[in-house]
Structure formats: structure tokens, C-alpha cells
Amino acid sequence: MNIVRHTLRILLQINEAALRTCLWRLAMWEYALFYHYRPRFFRRLYLRHMQVSHGPTFAIGNDFFLRHRGNLTLGNACGFGGFCRIWNYNPIAIGDDFLAAGGLTINTAGHNPDTMAGTGKPITIGKRVWCGLNVTILGGVTIGDDAVIGACSLVTKDVPSGAIVAGVPARVIRQIERSEFVRWGDGFEKSKSAA
Asked: Is 111 a catalytic residue?
């Protein structure tokens, strides 16, 4: 523990960008060496430094990247696979029990094609949403509760609750009826009513 305190003292003496980079590297180092064996101390420290409000339970894969401090709110039991990128120029709100495979990109910013001026819109993601591999979600989108987004989808418009969407751009494939799930620990578990 003395090593951690000493490291933090050194980190506090350097500039903001270097501190963010060091915390990010420590969080990824922690993932590589202690993923199944230790509490995710450096990941919590990284999220705290980046001013992310989150629930008590979360999982972050390796190479998780946040562009700015603040503008991100995570519900309880959110899980992100490896190589996720979040460009949080505007507010992003993610509900409870969110699960994303690797390669997720969430980008709130864009450019006006006529003037090339920067634009941005917030993103809201509901509860119990599952994103497949390499999903991209663009600004101004609201994703309803219990939605499933297929792998390699580009979400440019709102997704209704209980919908499975896929494609470029993402379109509704079908609706699903999902019962209330117990929060995940080792994955989603069967509902209480189905047991």
C-alpha cells in the first residue's frame, strides 16, 4: 500500500494530461495482471479522476477510453468489453445493467456538413441494454429499456424499448418480451419468476 501512496503523490505533482495518462495506464496494467484476483482499485480511481458517476458494480475491459472529464453517468452493474471508446463532449446517461461487447464507440459530437462547425447532442441509454461487438452510437440517440443492438451496427436514430436492431444504419429487426432480470455478477441470470 505504501507503493500506491507514493505513486499517487508523484502523480499529483505532474500536469493534468500526464495524470490522466498515468491513471489510464495503471488501470490497464491492473487489468492485465490482476483481472480475476483483486479489486479494480485503479479503474475506480480513473473513473473518479474523470468525474464519472457510477453505481457500486461495474466492469471495464482493457483499453477503455474517455475523451473528457464529466459528461458520463453510469447506472449500476454496467459492463464494457475491451477497446471501448467514449467521446463524451455532451452528456451521456447509461442505465442499470448495461452490457457492451468489445469495440463499442459512443460519440456525442459531429460537424455541420455546410459550415464544418462542431455540433453535439446528448445520448441516453436505458436499462438492460445489450450492445454487440463493434457497435457505434452517435449523438442525439435515445435507446429504450431492454434493447439489443447487433454486432457492427451504426445507431443513428432512436431505438424503441424492447427492440432488436442491427445494420448500418441500425433498423428494428423485431420486438422482444423480456422479463425482469436479476442483476448480473457472473453474467445475466434467470429471472426470479422463471426459476
From this structure: yes
CATH code where residue 101 lies: 2.160.10.10
CA distances for 92 relative to 73, 118, 138, 146, angstroms: 6, 17, 11, 18
Q: Are residues 7 and 72 in the same domain?
A: no
Query: For residues 80 and 59, is the Cβ–Cβ distance under 8 A?
Result: yes
For residue 61, pLDDT beyond 90: no
Q: How far apart are CA 41 and CA 33, in angstroms?
A: 13
The residue annotated as part of the active site, out of 49, 54, 68, 111, is: 111
pLDDT value at position 100? 95
Instruction: With beta carbons less than 8 A apart as the criterion, state whether 111 and 105 touch.
Output: no
Instruction: Provide the domain count of the chain.
Output: 2
Task: Assess whether 71 and 136 both reside in one domain.
Answer: yes
| pLDDT class of 9 with cuts at 50, 70, 90 | low
Query: Do 34 and 55 have their domain in common?
Result: no
Residues spanned by the domain of 59? 50-175
User: Could you tell me if 50 and 73 are in contact, meaning their C-beta atoms sit under 8 angstroms apart?
Assistant: no
pTM: 0.76
Task: Judge whether 187 and 170 are in contact, CB under 8 Å.
Answer: no
- pLDDT number for residue 55: 85
Q: Is 172 helix (H, G, I), strand (E, B) or coil?
A: strand
Location of C-alpha cell 436479476: 182
